[in-house]
Amino acid sequence: MEENENQRHNQIRDRMRMLLSTHLSTVRHQTQIAPLGEVLIQQDAPAERVLLVQTGELKVERCEAGGTPQVIARIGPNELVGEMALIGDQHHSATVTVSRGPAEVLVIEANDLLQTAIYDSDLVMELLALSSRRCRQTNRHLTLILEALEAFEQGHHPALERCCNALERGSDPTLSTAARRLRGLMQASETP
């Protein structure tokens, strides 16, 4: 299942990159070289741009009121970030920072991309497919984390281990960290 999901993700990513490249002559864009640690998108800021990563890696962090920032995703080469804010309230839901760099990113003006999408249904469908994939993936990860917490609460080690293994099978290091923390909770609860 994970392999099929990765193949679908690669298809969406490749198609999105191809569609964006066909429209670059009509949308305002620039290439930016961003050093390690630079914030490229700020949580709650108006969505004025979308980023296509060329090289390097970006981390996506979300912070709830009164909480601490949590890394929720890592974005690598040929990945789009910031597109979810184009629909809805048009504000970014997370902060995006260069985590491996310097990173080279193609910065695309959000309004231009939206105007282009009006005339290109393929582009709209790929933006929706990308957002839908990310939502489904988040739902799956949230379900695994909730199942693991329930297993922890009930002291059901095999179920907790199954959930942790599933979280670690993905390529996202954030989920591996979550699995490690869940196992740590279980081990701490067993210590007298």
Write out key terms for the chains shown:
192 residues, alpha+beta, 6-stranded antiparallel beta sheet, 6 strands
Brief overview, please?
With 192 residues, the protein is of the alpha+beta class.
Based on CA inertia axes, which overall geometry fits?
Answer: elongated
Topology, number of strands: 6
Low-confidence stretches: none
Structural class: alpha+beta
Query: Largest sheet at a glance?
Result: 6 strands, antiparallel
Order of helices and strands: HEEEEEEHHHH
Helix content: 40-55%
User: Radius of gyration from the CA trace?
Assistant: 19 Å
What's the pLDDT, averaged over the residues? 84
| Proportion of residues in β-strands | 15-25%
Through-space gap between termini? 40 Å
Enumerate how many helices there are, as a single number: 5
What does it look like?
With 192 residues, this protein is an alpha+beta fold. 51% of the residues lie in helices and 24% in strands. It has five helices and six strands. It has helices spanning 2-23, 110-119, 121-154, 157-169, 173-190, and strands at 29-34, 39-41, 49-62, 70-75, 80-81, 95-109. Strands 1, 2, 3, 4, 5 and 6 form a six-stranded antiparallel beta sheet that branches. The termini are far apart. The model has no long low-confidence stretch (mean pLDDT 84).
List the helices and strands and how they pair.
Elements: H1 2-23, E1 29-34, E2 39-41, E3 49-62, E4 70-75, E5 80-81, E6 95-109, H2 110-119, H3 121-154, H4 157-169, H5 173-190
Antiparallel strand pairs: 1-6, 2-6, 3-4, 3-5, 3-6
